[in-house]
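RECORD TYPE: inverse folding
INPUT: C-alpha cells
STRUCTURE:
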C-alpha cells in the first residue's frame, strides 16, 4: 500500500555569526551548509497497519511525513502510495490521505470550525451524502457538537486537535499521517485521541503512520515501530521484538508478612529496602524473575508481589544511546 525506497532529502541552510558585521558580510557573501535530513529511507506499510515513526529531535520524521504527503519533493528516491507518487500525482494522492500536524493548523483561525469543514468539502469535492454521514460520525466519536460553531482561535489545544483530526477524515481517506497528534494534550484528551485512532483503524481499516515523542502513544497504538536517527533508518520491527531485544532488567517489589532479614540474590540489585518490603532490579541475563520470587518465598512469608518491566520510554533512551543519536 505504501512503498518508500531510497529517499534522500537535504536542505541548504544559511550560516552566519552573531553581530551586525557578520549580518552585513552575509548579505554580500552568504555562506550555506547542507543538512542531510534523510539518507536512504526505505519501508513498506500494508493496509490497516498502525506504524509508529519515531526518533529524536531533528531525526527526519517530519521531513518524511512531508514527502509522503506530497508537501516536499525528495532529492532522490521513490515512493508509491496506492499507486500514486505523492509529489507528482498530488490531486489523486490527497484524496487518499488525511494529514494532521500537531504543531500547525489546517483550520481557518478566525472562523467557526464548521466553515473550514465546508471549505474542505469543496476542496475535496466530497458528495453531500458522504460529507453528512462522515460529519455525523466524526461529531459523535470526537465529541465535536459544542465546538463546530466556535472560531478556532477560541478553542483549547485539545479541542482544536479533535477538530483537526475530524477535518483530516471528512473525505474518507484510506491513510492517515499524524505528526505528533497528542503534543501538549492533557491525559484525558490524549486518551480520547488514541481511542479514536484505534477505532477508525479497526472499523474503517484506515492505515496510520504516527510520529510522536510520547512513548505511551506508541504503546497504546502501534504494533510496529520504525526508528530513524540522523536521517537514517535504524530499526523496523514490532514493539514486542524491541522489548525482547532491549529490556535488560525488571523490577520486583515484594511485601513480606513479617519483618525479614537481609538476603543477597545473585543477579539482583537492591533498589529500596525496609523490614517489610524489598524492591529489586533483576538482571534478566543472569536470573529469571520467577527464580527470584521463588528464592524469596522459600526464605520469607510473602504477602504481595509486583513485577514491573522497564518502561518503553527508558528502552527508547537506551536505544538512542546505543545508536548514538
Ligand atoms: N525547511 C527546512 N530548512 C532547513 N532545514 C530543515 C528544514 N526542515 C527540516 N530541516 C532540517 O532537517 C533535519 C530533520 O528535520 P525534521 O523536522 O524532519 O526532524 P524531526 O525528526 O521531525 O524532528 P522533531 O522531533 O524535532 O520535530 C533537521 O536537522 C532540521 O533542522
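DESIGNED SEQUENCE:
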Amino acid at each position: 500500500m505504501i512503498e518508500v525506497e531510497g529517499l534522500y532529502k537535504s536542505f541548504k541552510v544559511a550560516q552566519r555569526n552573531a553581530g551586525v558585521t557578520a549580518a552585513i558580510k552575509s548579505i554580500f557573501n552568504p555562506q550555506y551548509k547542507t543538512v542531510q535530513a534523510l539518507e536512504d529511507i526505505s519501508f513498506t506499510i500494508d493496509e490497516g497497519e498502525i506504524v509508529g515513526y519515531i526518533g529524536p529531535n531533528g531525526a527526519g520524521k517530519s521531513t518524511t511525513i512531508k514527502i509522503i504527503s506530497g508537501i516536499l519533493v525528495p532529492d532522490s528516491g521513490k515512493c508509491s502510495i496506492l499507486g500514486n507518487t505523492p509529489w507528482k500525482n498530488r490531486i489523486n494522492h490527497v484524496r487518499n490521505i488525511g494529514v494532521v500536524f500537531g504543531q500547525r493548523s489546517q483550520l481557518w483561525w478566525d472562523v467557526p470550525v464548521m466553515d473550514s469543514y465546508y471549505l474542505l468539502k469543496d476542496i475535496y469535492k466530497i458528495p453531500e451524502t458522504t460529507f453528512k454521514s462522515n460529519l455525523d460520525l466524526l461529531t459523535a466519536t470526537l465529541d465535536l457538537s459544542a465546538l463546530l460553531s466556535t472560531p478556532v482561535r477560541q478553542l483549547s489545544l485539545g479541542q482544536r486537535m479533535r477538530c483537526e483530526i475530524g477535518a483530516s477524515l471528512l473525505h474518507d481517506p484510506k491513510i492517515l499521517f499524524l505528526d505528533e497528534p497528542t503534543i501538549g494534550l492533557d491525559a484525558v484528551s490524549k486518551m480520547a485521541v488514541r481511542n479514536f485512532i484505534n477505532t477508525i483503524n479497526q472499523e474503517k481499516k484506515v492505515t496510520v503512520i504516527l510520529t510522536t515523542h510520547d512513548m505511551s502513544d506508541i504503546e497504546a497504538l502501534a504494533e510496529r515501530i520504525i526508528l530513524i536517527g540522523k536521517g537514517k533508518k535504524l530499526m523496523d520491527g514490532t514493539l514486542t521484538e524491541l522489548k525482547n531485544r532491549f529490556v535488560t532488567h525488571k523490577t520486583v517489589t515484594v511485601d513480606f508478612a513479617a519483618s525479614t532479614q537481609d538476603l543477597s540474590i545473585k543477579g539482583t540489585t537492591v533498589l529500596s529496602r525496609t523490614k517489610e518490603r524489598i524492591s529489586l532490579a533483576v538482571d534478566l541475563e543472569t536470573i529469571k524473575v520467577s527464580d527470584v520470587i521463588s528464592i524469596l518465598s522459600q526464605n520469607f512469608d510473602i504477602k504481595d508481589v509486583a513485577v514491573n518491566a522497564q518502561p518503553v520510554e527508558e528502552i527508547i533512551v537506551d536505544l538512542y544511546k546505543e545508536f548514538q543519536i
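NOTES: The pocket of adenosine-5'-triphosphate is lined by residues 11, 13, 35, 37, 55, 57-63 (CB under 6 Å).
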